[in-house]
Amino acid sequence: MKLLLTDSGVKNASILEALLDLLGKPIAEANALCIPTAGYGGPYGDPGGPWRFISGQSLHPMTGLGWKSVGVLELTALPGIDKERWVSWVRETDVLLVNGGDALYLCHWMRESGLADLFPSLHDTVYVGLSAGSMVLTPRVGEHFVAWQPPTGDDRALGVVDFSLFPHLDSPGCPENTMAEAERWAAALKAPAYAIDNQTAIKVTDDGVEIVSEGNWKLFNAAP
Fold first, then answer.
1. pLDDT digits (tens, 9 = 90+) for 13-32
2. How far is 164 from 166, CA to CA, in rounded Å?
3. Cβ contacts of 163 within 8 Å, gap of 6 or more
4. CA-to-CA distance for 142 and 154, rounded, in angstroms?
5. pTM of whole model > 0.90?
6. Do residues 212 and 15 touch, judged by C-beta distance below 8 A?
7. 3-class DSSP assignment, residue 137
8. CA 122 to chain centre
9. 119, 151, 130, 154: which is closest to 140 by C-alpha?
């Protein structure tokens, strides 16, 4: 997959340009599947958040960007659907738009549904994560972001990328997400980790990792 890991969606022209580069075609010619699942997890999950994400009414631009088509892939429903059907939906789409919410709840259902098993084979698919939708691809989320308790009892995520992610840096909506707290979080992880704000995204391709930002970010524990 080609990844665009955002804090708050496609919030500025630089992130939009990065998305278009990954797609290789205009948004109006691309088909999307949105995954709202993370919005139900954790202590603050409610029905309104997933609806706003699906309908494009969210303050975090994702589904409302003008796609050729948008479908909904609810991970908790997949175990009850013929696998060949939903796998074909995933393989045929251009982009996966993955909602924020609780990263470990999302991780659990990506594994339970079987979606995570498909990721290594989705070479041309663009994955756009929003907050928890980005964090789920990291090795660990860190204790700061553990709310929903997974069956594993730890903070491990999918490990598709080799760095962790601290979103909503200095956000008014998350006053606890200060740079000082990000530094404590990263020190506990003892591995490469980025803190990013709502004007920042991380683009990951076979060519490497690129920071796309019109805001603030910081890399901790950089690999040698």
1. 999 999 999 999 999 999 99
2. 7
3. 138, 139, 191, 192, 193, 194, 209
4. 9
5. yes
6. yes
7. coil
8. 16
9. 154
